[in-house]
Write a structure and sequence with these properties.
This is DegT/DnrJ/EryC1/StrS family aminotransferase. InterPro entries: DegT/StrS_aminotransferase, PyrdxlP-dep_Trfase, PyrdxlP-dep_Trfase_major, PyrdxlP-dep_Trfase_small. With 374 residues, the protein is an alpha/beta fold. It has 13 helices and ten strands. Strand 2, helix 5 and strand 3 form a beta-alpha-beta unit. Helix 4 packs across helix 8. The protein binds pyridoxal-5'-phosphate.
Length: 374
């Protein structure tokens, strides 16, 4: 059996460091918003190239807190429209709704599966105030085009970077600085999830907001902790969505490995792209650069249920990202009547095959052979 993602194998590499760090955490007697969270916020901001990082309890909260903070700051108002790709994980859309804003779903590009700039333009109206881009499957969205649209219309750009930790802007957008920008630093604010399966994953729930906007950073920081920066003094209406100190400790250890792990994923993806040769399977678009961190490796196949049965017979685990598009979920009944043919086509045909930084060469070989024999 080839595992889809061996989380224990991924984390076992850090076992000694985890145990040492846990011991000092236990001994510190300081279990909430301590030195580990502080260090992670500094180091992850530096990693992304942003001025600020604020740890949160999870990725959905990170997204929601960005929107709620913009409302608090008067940059967004209740019921403002936010453009969001129709094919995304439901969290992107929930964050907009939970903040009191209105999601406007837009079809993706069938090649990259990311938000289409042309489609976005068609949905703009005077109520549109922000664009939430999702770097789906680990591949950066077309930020150049999206930022150009946003600039001309005065819209906020927020990144859902939950699948794209460490993805670097393509070299064709190199500016004078010669410093490439990373996911988290390509819009006005970004949200990350460190759910265990993500490219940078904790051993539980965790998330973060990154931004260069000082007012936003300060508001998110207040809001995630009961609207308070000083104990028992509450300045605004907040929530409890702090990044857990122990998860921050684990993330501090794992952050050092992130670039190497992303390189392993890209190397593996290149093997798949070169060696899988089967006309029945559509392989993902890849520029060959570091703008893709292959959070998942998604292929498409017309007869998906037949292919699923085949993979099961070969002992190759797989997942579907995602089986039901958000607009067809019962929870989003107000969107159920809408039609998004490209999104629906993607949801009907996608299959994610094993992808991880710790897969053995013979396992990769087995997957390739199985796919070529289909
Ligand atoms: C994982 C994920 C989230 C939510 O993260 P949680 O930490 O599970 O709340 C949001 N958006 C996308 C695209 C994700 O993949």
């Amino acid at each position: 059996m080839i595992k889809f993602l061996d989380l224990h194998k991924i984390n076992a590499r850090f076992e000694t460091d985890f145990q040492e760090r846990f011991k000092s955490f236990l001994n510190s007697g300081h279990y909430i918003l301590g030195s580990e969270v502080e260090r992670f916020e500094m180091d992850f901001a530096a990693y992304c190239g942003t001025k600020y990082c604020i740890g949160t309890a999870n990725g959905l909260d990170a997204l929601t807190l960005i929107f709620k903070s913009y409302i608090h700051l008067g940059k967004l108002e209740i019921n403002d429209e936010v453009i969001v790709p129709a094919n995304t994980y439901i969290a992107s859309i929930l964050s907009i709704i939970n903040a009191g804003l209105k999601p406007v779903l837009v079809e993706p590009d069938l090649e990259t599966y990311n938000l289409s700039a042309e489609e976005t333009i068609k949905h703009l109206n005077p109520n549109t105030k922000a664009i939430l881009v999702v770097h789906l499957y680990g591949q950066l969205a077309d930020m150049h085009a999206i930022n150009t649209i946003a600039k001309s219309k005065g819209l906020l750009v927020i990144e859902d970077a939950a699948q794209a930790h460490g993805a670097v802007e393509s070299s064709k957008f190199e500016v004078q600085s010669s410093r490439f920008k990373k996911a988290g630093n390509l819009g006005d604010a970004a949200a990350f999830s460190f759910y265990p399966t993500k490219n940078l994953g904790a051993l539980g729930d965790a998330g973060a907001v990154t931004t260069n906007d000082r007012d936003l950073a300060e508001t998110v920081k207040l809001m995630r902790n009961y609207g308070s920066s000083k104990k028992y003094v509450n300045e605004i209406i907040g929530v409890n969505s702090r990044l857990d100190e122990l998860q921050a400790a684990f993330l501090n250890i794992k952050l050092k490995q992130l670039d190497k792990d992303n390189d392993m994923r890209r190397t593996m993806a290149k093997r798949y792209l070169h060696e899988i040769k089967n006309k029945k399977l559509t392989l993902p678009f890849y520029s060959g650069e570091d703008d893709h961190v292959f959070h998942v490796f998604v292929i498409r196949v017309i007869d998906r249920s037949g292919f699923e049965t085949y993979l099961q017979s070969k002992g190759v685990e797989y997942l579907i990202h995602y089986p039901v598009p958000p607009h067809q979920q019962k929870a989003l009944s107000m969107l159920n009547e809408n039609k998004y043919p490209i999104t629906e086509e993607i949801h009907k045909t996608v299959v994610s095959i094993p992808m991880s930084p710790v897969m053995a060469a013979d396992e990769i070989f087995t997957v390739i052979n199985a796919l070529n024999a289909y």
